[in-house]
Write a sequence for this structure.
């Protein structure tokens, strides 16, 4: 557990982050389970190759056999022999907004999850513990919806052009001014897609001869953007400042490989909240390191913007730091604003440069105006500029729900990862069969959860990932906690050896 | 191969393999130990030095597709603790098998050949060699 | 249920479960028998 604090003086608030170790017996049994499934996977592949079993998988036709194989069949080994068996817990079709409650379409399979059929019935009022809806703005009614509908009538849905051409609307300029004010930076620019905000802008910021220091658990969009840029990438251990400082020192002392020329730029890339771990970046220490070694800092607040900080300004406000210390403030509107897309905030010079040089502003169609309006409404509500304290109450409610939900789960004896203030609550399942069983048992009891397994997590760290929302009432959370306790007993998931004294 | 408990799981699997072979009534002790050694090395050779690529999609644009598991371990860095462990374990098994077969010639040749088949690919000089 | 979950038989198809249980029982029987003979 990370209770041991380094650089205590940098923090203005307690920083409680724990990653309880996997019990050794559970780890061994998990490997054994994967071993058994692998053996049966090889058996099934053998039967498919000898046409004893019908192959549902996409394969080349006989006439195409001589060509370069389209399907890397070994790379699909895991998908067709392990994931297929439990995939009814994934990609569940819902027929309502992903709010605090949702309606799930009922489906069944008669060929072990290779194909699904709908029963035509809808499972109503499922408590949604899986969607990213931190502040509860995912609604199809209310102020935001009416404003978005009006803008939809006025502007239409699609923009069909880029920001540098016809797609530069007043709605975008209004949103960018608001985002800059919200973040407390000089200027901001927004993009129609969160993933693209990372993958298309990092190549505009760094290139060959630059060094990127990236956290090992960074999101795929950051990884793609870093690779696309051509810069040299070095990985430091997750949230480990010792590892980061060591890389920084090596980079400065040794410079570039072979030529030993100094790096043109050193860019540290971290996320505010890590959505698989539920951990919060040690931002005070990262900023102290970047100042000490004169590096640049790229902070991805995809999950923390709106969800952290007394007024929802994200991880910078959460630690009481100055936004100007972060060179590039990136974030998305997907998780807390009930919208889509992303933004980058920073100095005016940076934003003007990105407006000229970013792949997205040159090639991508810009954000749809109704979506922009949804964000403007939600953001004004959080800032209290809509004349109500609704947004502020949501921020408080989320913080309260988060602490309550995490504490209760720990009291029950589950192993919960991450920071006690993070609205993402990973509950450890470990064994592969328990992933599928947990998802099924919870839906049976009318709770929708997201379960995650290898290779999205380390092989012995499969988990259920709860996303707490401000829209969850205390009753909903208590119902969910009761059901989780029940299923936890049924599946024997209460592995924790740290008993919380209530 | 660095994650928690995997070495213990590996040792338990080898012991389990040996117990299962030991439980076959008509096998003598030397045969059981030789079979344990040979089966273990065969499986190790298959999984670490034959199968290439990854059984799941990786975001490295197919870089790992042409590498065996042994070459992908620890990003190709040599002499890591996992590599040392996986190099030592067949040797320990070989010594045990040689001891229990009382160094009889036939068994000795089989065990030695089997050991070399998993030791040679582990040498750094053979990294990436086809 | 714990046996099904821990051995992952829970996600196997019925015929695979039969194969798995048969093999497991056979091995267990052999181990018991040999231990008995040995002891």
């Amino acid at each position: 557990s990370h209770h041991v604090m380094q650089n205590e003086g940098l923090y203005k608030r307690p920083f409680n982050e724990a990653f309880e170790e996997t019990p050794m017996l559970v780890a061994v049994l998990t490997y054994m389970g994967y071993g058994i499934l692998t053996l049966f996977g090889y058996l099934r592949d053998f039967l498919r190759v000898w046409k004893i079993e019908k192959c549902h998988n996409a394969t080349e036709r006989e006439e195409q056999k001589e060509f370069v194989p389209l399907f890397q069949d070994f790379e699909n080994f895991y998908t067709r022999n392990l994931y297929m068996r439990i995939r009814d817990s994934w990609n569940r079709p819902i027929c309502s907004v992903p709010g605090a409650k949702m309606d799930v379409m009922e489906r069944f399979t008669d060929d072990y999850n290779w194909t699904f059929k709908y029963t035509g019935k809808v499972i109503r009022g499922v408590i949604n513990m899986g969607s990213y809806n931190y502040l509860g703005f995912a609604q199809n009614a209310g102020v935001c919806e009416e404003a978005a509908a009006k803008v939809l009538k006025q502007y239409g849905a699609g923009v069909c052009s880029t920001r540098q051409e016809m797609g530069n609307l007043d709605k975008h300029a209004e949103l960018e001014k608001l985002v800059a004010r919200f973040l407390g930076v000089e200027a901001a620019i927004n993009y129609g897609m969160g993933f693209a905000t990372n993958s298309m802008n990092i190549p505009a910021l760094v290139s060959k001869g630059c060094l990127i220091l990236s956290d090992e658990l960074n999101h795929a969009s950051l990884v793609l953007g870093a690779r696309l840029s051509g810069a040299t990438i070095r990985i430091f251990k997750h949230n480990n400042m010792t590892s980061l400082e060591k890389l920084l020192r090596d980079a400065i002392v040794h410079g570039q490989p072979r030529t030993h020329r100094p790096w043109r730029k050193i860019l540290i890339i971290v996320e505010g909240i890590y959505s698989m771990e539920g951990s919060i970046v040690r931002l005070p220490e990262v900023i102290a390191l970047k100042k000490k070694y004169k590096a640049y800092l790229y902070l991805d607040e995809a999950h923390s913007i709106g969800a952290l900080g007394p007024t929802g300004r994200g991880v910078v406000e959460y630690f009481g730091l100055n936004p100007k210390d972060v060179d590039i403030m990136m974030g998305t509107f997907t998780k807390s604003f009930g919208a889509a897309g992303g933004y980058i905030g920073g100095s005016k010079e940076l934003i003007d440069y990105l407006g000229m040089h970013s792949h997205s502003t040159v090639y991508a169609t810009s954000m749809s105006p109704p979506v922009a309006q949804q964000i403007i409404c939600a953001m004004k509500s959080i800032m209290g500029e809509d004349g109500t304290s609704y947004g502020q109450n949501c921020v408080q409610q989320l913080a309260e729900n988060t602490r309550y939900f995490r504490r209760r789960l720990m009291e029950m004896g589950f192993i919960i990862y991450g920071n006690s203030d993070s609205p993402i609550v990973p509950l450890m399942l470990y064994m592969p069969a328990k992933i599928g069983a947990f998802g099924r048992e919870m839906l049976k009891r009318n709770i929708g959860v997201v379960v995650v397994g290898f290779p999205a997590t380390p092989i012995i760290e499969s988990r259920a990932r709860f996303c707490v929302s401000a829209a969850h009432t205390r009753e909903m959370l208590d119902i969910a906690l009761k059901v989780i306790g029940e299923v936890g007993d049924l599946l024997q998931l209460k592995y924790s050896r740290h008993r919380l004294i209530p | 191969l660095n994650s928690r408990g995997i070495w213990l799981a590996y040792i338990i699997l080898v012991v389990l393999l040996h117990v299962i072979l030991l439980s076959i009534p008509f096998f003598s002790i030397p045969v059981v130990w030789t079979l344990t050694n040979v089966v273990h090395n065969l499986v190790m050779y298959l999984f670490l030095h034959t199968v290439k690529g990854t059984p799941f999609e990786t975001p490295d644009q197919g870089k790992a597709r042409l590498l065996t598991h042994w070459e992908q371990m620890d990003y190709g860095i040599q002499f890591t603790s996992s590599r040392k462990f996986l190099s030592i374990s067949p040797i320990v098994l070989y010594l045990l098998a040689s001891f229990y077969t009382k160094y009889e010639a036939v068994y000795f040749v089989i065990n030695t050949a089997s050991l070399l088949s998993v030791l040679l690919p582990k040498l750094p000089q053979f990294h990436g060699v086809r | 249920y714990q046996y099904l979950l821990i051995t992952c038989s829970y996600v196997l198809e019925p015929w695979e479960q039969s194969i798995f249980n048969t093999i497991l029982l056979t091995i267990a029987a052999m181990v018991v028998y040999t231990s008995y003979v040995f002891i």
